[in-house]
Amino acid sequence: MTFAQSIMYLVISAAVAIAAEYLRRRLGVERLKQIQKELILKQDLAVVAVKYAEQAWRNLDGESKYEGASEWLAEALEARGIHAEPEDIRALIEWALREIKDQLGEEWAKVSEA
């Protein structure tokens, strides 16, 4: 093997290693984007579920509204090919409720009392 061939093998090996690392990182970034997109979808649907429960079951207690919202959210996620465990559903609904309460502030208390 000549010196030129050795250098060529070294350059090719380095190029393959760099390409492999680039692909690994690129796939990692794409996966993170997918996870972020899915989380935003889950959060958006959770807000819809909470608002739906508040509107559809105004006269029911909080636990009944939670049950309705959790069923709706689970079905909405499954329809989009996303499986969520019951504890994830609960966390999403609790998060959405907190977000809504924080946005509405004192108005939420007035609506809840009515």
Instruction: Assign the structural class, choosing from mainly alpha, mainly beta, alpha/beta, alpha+beta, or little secondary structure.
Output: mainly alpha
Rg, alpha carbons:
25 Å
Number of helices: 4
Q: Count the beta strands.
A: 0
* Mean pLDDT rating: 85
What overall form do the CA principal axes indicate? Answer: rod-shaped
CA(first)-CA(last) distance: 87 Å
Poorly predicted regions: none
Classify the beta-strand content into a percent band.
under 5%
- Name the helicity range: over 70%
List the helices and strands in order: HHHH
Most strands sheet: none
Description:
The chain has helices spanning 3-56, 62-79, 86-104, 106-113. Helices cover 87% and strands 0% of the residues. The chain is mainly alpha-helical and 114 residues long. The model has no long low-confidence stretch (mean pLDDT 85). The longest helix has 54 residues, at 3-56. α1 (3-56) crosses α3 and α2 (62-79) packs across α3.
